């Protein structure tokens, strides 16, 4: 088994992982979407990682989708809506028993990816690290955080897990990864869409708690119905704690909308509404929020799926 880290998507999080793995001496190869992006990357000669006032350049090799050679380990670092189509294109290169690490926020994209590659192991990740692109091939490490990785289908920790510690990537193998992803999704549903609708920082929701609380009630019911009682525990309190602790921040969904980018709503609030529908659970507040958000995105000319 090759120990090379192939990284699909040299955006914010993919570049952050690539630079840290490369500087610790691991073999890393970026996979870019086509020859044009590859040529642009090669002109630049590598990725630049900015941390506070320090910047480092890493000449990490890159290739396009159709490069030859098998892939044994793939970090999937594109947006949730791009993950399954991108992995499907790479499927012919995935070795039997290949391992994929899925960094996507929300839920639903992981199962879409797994359907494309039944012969591979899919490891789900939940990250609270923060990074953003200042320019193409240049990423700023904006918020220290943590990463939980786990495989709902198999509890064994992968042999490469120590690579993360050696690269200074804070991470833990989590047997309860579905609960962690559900909890993060619930926090997102209670906060992010309202920041878009009220055009405010997270702290602005302190003036709209009468809207937040009923959403939390429905999310708690939904989490119980989906077999995720730990993810439901003290949700109201944690939502309020997050609103206070991040009062001056703009949510990721708010930032996507502000920059005219497609949001990941389909895998966040959309997933919550679809899960409720599958369980026959009425969630009128969440449904209403979803409709308002979709209308708002469409009025801005943004995709709402
Ligand atoms: P991003 O900056 O937009 O990067 C996505 C990258 O994927 C882009 O470089 C894009 O390529 C690439 N891509 C898309 N389709 C591709 C394809 N078919 N082939 C090759 N590359 C492809 O996104 P991000 O912020 O890193 O987010 C990635 C995931 O991590 C999201 O689900 C997000 O919610 C989650 N997350 C992000 C953060 C964060 O701080 N950024 C934190 C926690 C979780 P181009 O450059 O060519 O467009």
UniProtKB/TrEMBL annotation:
UniProt entry tagged with the keyword Manganese: no
Domain named Ketopantoate reductase C-terminal: residues: 177-291
Boundaries of every Ketopantoate reductase N-terminal domain copy: 5-152
Keywords assigned: NADP, Oxidoreductase, Pantothenate biosynthesis
Pathway: Cofactor biosynthesis; (R)-pantothenate biosynthesis; (R)-pantoate from 3-methyl-2-oxobutanoate: step 2/2
NCBIfam families reported in the protein's UniProt record: apbA_panE, PRK05708.1
Job of this protein: Catalyzes the NADPH-dependent reduction of ketopantoate into pantoic acid.
Similarity-based family: Belongs to the ketopantoate reductase family.
Protein name listed in UniProt: 2-dehydropantoate 2-reductase
Organismal lineage: Bacteria, Pseudomonadati, Pseudomonadota, Gammaproteobacteria, Pseudomonadales
């Amino acid at each position: 088994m090759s120990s090379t880290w192939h990284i699909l998507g040299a955006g914010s999080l993919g570049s952050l992982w690539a630079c840290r793995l490369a500087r610790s001496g691991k073999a890393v190869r970026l996979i870019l979407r086509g020859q044009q992006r590859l040529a642009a990357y090669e002109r630049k000669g590598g990725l630049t990682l900015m941390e506070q006032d320090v910047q480092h350049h890493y000449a990490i090799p890159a290739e396009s989708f159709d490069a030859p050679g098998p892939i044994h380990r793939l970090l999937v670092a594109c947006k949730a809506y791009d993950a399954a189509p991108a992995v499907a294109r790479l499927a012919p290169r995935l070795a039997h028993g290949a391992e994929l690490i899925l960094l996507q926020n929300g839920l639903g994209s992981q199962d879409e990816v797994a359907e494309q590659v039944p012969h591979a192991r899919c490891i789900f990740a939940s990250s609270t690290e923060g990074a953003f692109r200042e320019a193409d091939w240049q990423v700023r490490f904006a918020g220290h955080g943590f990463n939980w990785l786990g495989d709902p289908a198999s509890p064994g920790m992968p042999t490469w897990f120590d690579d993360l510690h050696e690269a200074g990537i804070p991470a833990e193998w989590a047997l309860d990864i579905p609960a962690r992803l559900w909890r993060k999704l619930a926090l997102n549903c209670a906060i992010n869409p309202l920041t878009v609708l009220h055009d405010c920082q997270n702290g602005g929701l302190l003036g709209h708690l009468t809207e937040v609380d009923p959403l939390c009630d429905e999310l708690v019911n939904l989490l119980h119905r989906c077999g995720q009682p730990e993810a439901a525990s003290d949700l109201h309190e944690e939502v309020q704690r997050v609103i206070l602790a991040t009062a001056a921040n703009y949510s990721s969904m708010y930032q996507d909308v502000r920059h005219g980018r497609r949001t990941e709503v389909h895998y966040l609030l959309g997933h919550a509404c679809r899960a409720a529908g599958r369980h026959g659970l009425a969630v009128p507040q969440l449904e209403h929020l979803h409709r308002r958000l979709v209308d708002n995105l469409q009025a801005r000319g943004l995709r709402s799926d």
